[in-house]
Write a structure and sequence with these properties.
The structure is a homodimer. Chain A has helices at about 30, 55-70, 95-100, 115-130, 145-150, 205-225, 240-250, 280-300, 315-320; strands at about 5, 10-25, 40-45, 80-85, 105-110, 135-140, 165, 170-180, 185-190, 230-235, 260, 280, 305-310, 325-335. Chain A has 2 domains: about 5-180, Peroxisomal Thiolase, Chain A, domain 1 (3-Layer(aba) Sandwich); about 185-335, Stage V sporulation protein AD (Peroxisomal Thiolase, Chain A, domain 1), CATH 3.40.47.40. By secondary structure, chain A is an alpha/beta fold. Chain A has 9 helices and 14 strands.
Chain lengths: ~350, ~350
Amino acid sequence: MQQSKKIGKQTYNIEQGVSIIGYGAVVGKKEGNGPLGKKFDFVIDDGYFGEKTWEKAETKMQKEAILYAVSKARKSLSDIDIILSGDLLNQCIGSNYAVRDLGIPFLGLYGACSTMAESMVIGSMLIDGNYANNIVCGTSSHFCSSERQFRSPLEYGGQRPFSAQLTATASGMVVLAKSDDKPYITQVTIGKVIDKGVKDILNMGAAMAPGAVDTMLTHFEDTDTSPSSYDLIITGDLGKTGYQIVMDLMGKSGYKLSNYKDCGMMLYDLIKQDAHSGASGCGCSASVMCGHIIPEIKSQKINRVLFIGTGALMSPTSVQQGESIPTIAHAVVISNER
Amino acid sequence: MQQSKKIGKQTYNIEQGVSIIGYGAVVGKKEGNGPLGKKFDFVIDDGYFGEKTWEKAETKMQKEAILYAVSKARKSLSDIDIILSGDLLNQCIGSNYAVRDLGIPFLGLYGACSTMAESMVIGSMLIDGNYANNIVCGTSSHFCSSERQFRSPLEYGGQRPFSAQLTATASGMVVLAKSDDKPYITQVTIGKVIDKGVKDILNMGAAMAPGAVDTMLTHFEDTDTSPSSYDLIITGDLGKTGYQIVMDLMGKSGYKLSNYKDCGMMLYDLIKQDAHSGASGCGCSASVMCGHIIPEIKSQKINRVLFIGTGALMSPTSVQQGESIPTIAHAVVISNER
């Protein structure tokens, strides 16, 4: 029996060097007009992307992001062993319909906005465990399909508090493979469900921040690292409000974070684009990672990143029934060194 | 670099012998009154299970099933490395809230009614890959929470055609572990999304049967086995209608199945309990496997089973938008021989 790859409580070594060999990001118009706009593979013209509904547009975005990632990996679809994906829509239809015509074995995930990280966690374990050579991992979200499902009809035009975030219209996909190409996924930390009693669905940053902190602290403890071990620590979609809570909670735990960013604060110009606390949704961290961060690592502008994907696991039904918001955060170490 | 564990197109060898060391099933009253009623760990009195809503009852059933499985495995919750689960409810709240207080790392899945098989596929790979020693895998469904979400208010009392199935009120959970105890998971086959254009959500058996057949045929080809290699081939929740279609389609492929059953036809007495085509829902195969089939293998009444979990991946929104029903089926070989 081989030795366990688990270190500490929740962290796993990816021993063989699982490479990110391809990455694709397709985003909406607002995301295309944001500070990272030029970095994405494709910016769609309007919310419909030539389809009849927003849900179908989201499906198409996910499919296109898969094709970009696979093409940039110099692979063909028939090289892909497994697709791991999920999204925010009820029954994850964004993903289920995206893979329908691809003929590739599929394992559906639900991790809400943590799905990009969750898919990379499982994908890198399956490759390192010698189950697959090439796995596509990713997710999507769409502002309009999310508003329709989680909040009010768009036409209602309700005011939002400044703690509220905008669900990104975006999809991001990576191809993981056994390869010597940089960068590598070297460690992953699987999060626990954390619920501190926050019930305000217009303040998801506050709900998710404690989950991010729990995973961050566990990761440092499990791996005997500290914030300075990384060039960048980046959370998925906490927005300005959640970011500040993470800074505060980490400060109380004795860590002063000087190299910490949040994808939710990077996708839009918060002031000029009237984005309040920032971006959220599965597509937020997926597109920022695939369009911006992974290329930055690949070009060695930064060399070692702790990516913490954050997700809020409530539904409109659970909220209506008075429940608080359970959250989760999974961490992935992406590095140019194995 | 070690050799790939993939055989053929979609199948993987679980080499080290991953044991099913615990299993728990909690079911509703109707399921308790069915032919397998005495085999479950616990039968709840009414749809609420002491909770205020059906969704909370489903969450509680899932939590109780986890506790039964872990207890029968003679483990404590702190021994569990990872929980893999999901369910049919929007945003998988049955699972997210069930694990909230357990403090165990969690990876959420969405595979609709294939979730029991999907969780066993991923769980056995992660254990065989030396990532974890003990993983809990499972799912749930609830007749009332599903009706509310997918169909009409219960009070409406609409007539159903005979092709329709009843969503099982049930949860099933297994504990997978590295152990020498029988039975073992020895091979898994990951399904592709198959959509033959069926749009009738009151005939899910017809929608899912081609997916089950695709995975069954691929499994036989990948592993160089045939139906007679197994004491039992069992699908998740095709019901009487889907069962007949599988028999027909397999017949056309040259296989006469004499050892084939469907969990959806076993949970209720189809006539006496007015169950039409049978049971469906994630909890159907989960409870039949955990309450009946796995114990039958453990007691060596049967020794080698091909379990094919079947799932329909549409949502009410995709159906309203005129889409057909994409389906998936994952296969798990459970055997007393490694």
